[in-house]
Known about the structure:
Layout: E1 2-8, H1 14-25, H2 32-42, E2 48-54, E3 57-69, E4 72-82, H3 91-105, E5 110-114, H4 119-123, E6 128-134, E7 137-142, H5 146-159
Parallel strand pairs: 4-5
Antiparallel strand pairs: 1-2, 2-3, 3-4, 5-7, 6-7
Bound molecules: coenzyme A.
Amino acid sequence: MITFKNLNNFKVKKKDIKSILHLKKQNWKYTLKSQYKYFQENVKSNDIHCLMYIKEKLVGYTLLRLRKIFNIKFLIFDTYIIDKKFRLKGYGGELLRYDNKIIKKKKLPSILLCKKSMVNFYKSYGWLLSNSKVKKKKLMYYNLKKKDRVLISKKYTKLISF
Ligand SMILES: CC(C)(COP(=O)(O)OP(=O)(O)OC[C@H]1O[C@@H](n2cnc3c(N)ncnc32)[C@H](O)[C@@H]1OP(=O)(O)O)[C@@H](O)C(=O)NCCC(=O)NCCS
């Protein structure tokens, strides 16, 4: 059975951090120690951890980083990952649906950067592609008001300097 939870960083427990870092290590080849240091230095207290469990095992994770740019609050969609053993079974989609629900519930827009090959995947879950590119990566957004989209296209480099 799949269960989800979301936690602000100030509420996260050491046990949660440990399982998040172990999951991240499958894809990003940093030592646990350096990941922990990065975590402590870069994850802010109101950033949101979205966690997906199967039988109490953490199998999916997304970090939604709360930032304010040009007076607009944003959630930067980051570190989206599914445990290797559980990929290509639809769990990534399940987690993304949950992430989208949290983004909507917070009434905030969200942005992400991804490879071209991932664009259609995100599109199928309601994300939109911006015309802007950042270091060859595609910029996509969700739950963003039309009036703010222009601002994003023009100022995207500042926007993603997080
Ligand atoms: C991306 C990821 C979360 C998807 O999880 P998943 O459980 O395999 O996702 P699903 O089973 O719901 O969906 C798989 C779909 O994603 C597509 N997909 C997965 N990884 C992809 C990639 N790197 N490039 C293009 N498409 C990809 C598959 O082709 C499949 O498409 P289909 O449904 O049309 O067949 C998972 O592959 C992962 O953790 N990757 C490593 C971390 C990563 O790259 N994160 C994204 C950063 S932008």
